[in-house]
Design brief:
With about 120 residues, the protein is of the alpha+beta class. The chain is built from three helices and six strands. A hairpin with a 2-residue loop joins strand 5 and strand 6.
């Protein structure tokens, strides 16, 4: 079963320049999650799936006091955070988007894909 969470918005300090670290900007996060369908079908219970509110709170609490220079590091950290806290996830793609990184680019986005293999997180 695939769960798609689109356009989650979080404020964060993000950028390589000093002036970018002075004010939080909003980033957008999209996550595609694959869970074992057999665990949820016929047993529709929140413990057998991903709780959207808990996931968004996990992300928000994690990044609330952090400062990142690179979107690549932020994306990797979020991927590990989510996979470590949700064993039900078999495969996941996460995309983090920064709007208007410079005047001539409408957005910059970093995507990572991961899966569990032999109970280990493998980045593809």
């Amino acid at each position: 079963m695939k769960i798609v969470l689109n356009d989650m918005t979080f404020p964060i300090y993000l950028g390589v320049y000093d002036w970018e670290q002075e004010k939080k900007i909003n980033i957008n996060i999209n996550i595609d999650i694959v869970i074992d369908s057999n665990k949820i079908i016929g047993n529709f219970d929140l413990k057998n799936t991903v709780d959207y509110e808990a996931l968004s709170c996990l992300i928000s609490n994690y990044i609330s006091d952090k400062r990142y220079a690179l979107i690549e590091e932020l994306t990797y950290d979020l991927l590990i955070l989510i996979m470590d806290n949700h064993e039900i996830i078999k495969k996941m793609e996460i995309a983090v988007k920064k709007n208007r990184p410079i005047d001539i680019i409408s957005s910059a986005e970093v995507k990572l894909i991961t899966m569990r293999k032999n109970n280990k997180i493998v980045i593809l």
